[in-house]
Fold this sequence. Notes:
With 218 residues, chain A is α+β, with helices and mostly antiparallel strands. Chain A has helices spanning 42-65, 93-96, 102-121, 156-173, 178-193, 195-211; strands spanning 9-13, 17-24, 27-34, 73-77, 82-86, 91-92, 124-125, 134-136, 142-144, 151-152. With 330 residues, chain B is of the alpha/beta class. In chain B, the strands form three sheets. A five-stranded mixed β-sheet of chain B has the order 3-2-1-4-5, with helices on both faces. The radius of gyration of chain B is 20 Å and the shape is globular.
Amino acid sequence: xxxxxxxxxxxxxxxxADLSLATIGPWKVVVKHRVRKEYRNPILDERIRHDRTMSxxxxxxxxxxxxxxxxxxxxxxxxxxxxxxxxxxxxVARECLxxxxxxxxxxxxxxxxxxxxxxxxxGIVHGDLTTSNVIVSPSGAxxxxxxxxxxxxxxxxxxxxxxxxxxxxxVASHSQDPSSMMNATFRGYEQTAGKRVASSTLRKAREIAxxxxxxxxx
Amino acid sequence: MFCLGIESTAHTFGASLVDANDRILTNVNSAYRPPVxxxxxxxxxxxxxxxxADDIVRTALSTTDGSAIDPDVIAYAAGPGLGPCLRVGAxxxxxxxxxxxxxxxxxxxxxxxLDIAMSIAKARDPLAVLVSGGHTSILVHVGKRWRVYxxxxxITLGNLLDMFSREARLPSPGGASVGREATKGQNLLKLPYTxxxxxxxxxxxxxxxxxxxxxxxxxxxxxxxxxxTAFSMLSEAVERSLVQTRRSEVLLAGGVAASPRLREMxxxxxxxxxxxxxxxxxEYSGDCGAQIACSGRxxxxxxxxxxxxxxxxxxxxxxxxxxxxxxxxx
Lengths: 218, 330
């Protein structure tokens, strides 16, 4: 699939990829093109971009099959390190979370937790779970996007990273009370992941948070 | 208003005087250098500090014409760091504070790295990248505190370079030695690249590099590959954090900030994302008295001080456990 032949308009510049909007037949699609990074050695750069593109495309497809709310893969352009997927209408959670009342925000986080649980049950960890990577549809349903850092794993360690990252993005970017937001997330998570998986993930997430530098042994 | 700062968290004992306008009047430092192939021995480092303390403080308090200045505030590095080393600086600080009857201010060494970099760069509210032997963190200031947005999950960038250079019998400081060798290398060897979200992990990279070293890989290529891989991991985490936190300034501080290659890479990330880049000047990148004086002055003016009887040292002390109400700077 040669994405260079698509007529597209720029949509968003992310940290590692450029997103642009195009139309294929009846579908509005998003082209995610991993761009070359000037700071990186060219061999390392090509290796990272290629590996991430391939893995992202297959993981998104697998997540869809597992019943999670994610975009649908339309095609992969291996030569250009680009993925074509269906466009999702909605707002990024990072933008709308602070404008919500407490109960509405908790409802959203609970629903995000359910989605994470579905991914984890399918053996997929996201690897970069922040409120910037959740798109809230007009009906209020959250879609998880950007699987560039994701991997297949059933390790509590990797699942713990997901919850840890989400918590940190809530603490650092939002005015909502972090502990009630995380409690809501966890309740949703428990529902789809099951009690046993949920408790091991939560234990790891706490451990990971304490792994950072200079935590006092208390 | 003159603030005396005393640094003694690890290998360096330093003293420095700053004034109310952030001018660094004196900055006198002496570093304990372990033999090649050996790390810092905490007790030996503390003995070095105790030996040089008198001279260093005296020099820091004297003006060019030889007269002595009495400081109005005494700041000391209370942590994090090596216990025996911290206690030397704290003892000197307490003694001066009670003798001169001037207030004593405890300073967080990591916060101080950022404060001096911000003062010199006149940065207001940056995404801060702190890279040293003690820290590898990506931080943003929210409310009253620095919040860790990304960090190393195991060893720091400084640890990685120091430990590898000891294995390779390169002289301390390791970052500079590896950097020098790296300029002669050109082949990129495959090493593990571990980024987890906004966090990095360097221990696997160290093990792999040490294994290649034992298998007689070309040292220049190995140093080049180690540096490229380690710095690329951090740069990627910085870029992602920058996009998410939307800061318009990027600050680079700490000992490893002296690396020309790291400055180039983080600078390139900042430029790509439309942010201004403020690397700490190389002479103030490593541990020094000036960082403590600078941070102590800001803390004192925010009302932070401690009585000698309540003064403390904290070998383990996280950046996000300290109130830093003087940011954003105006």
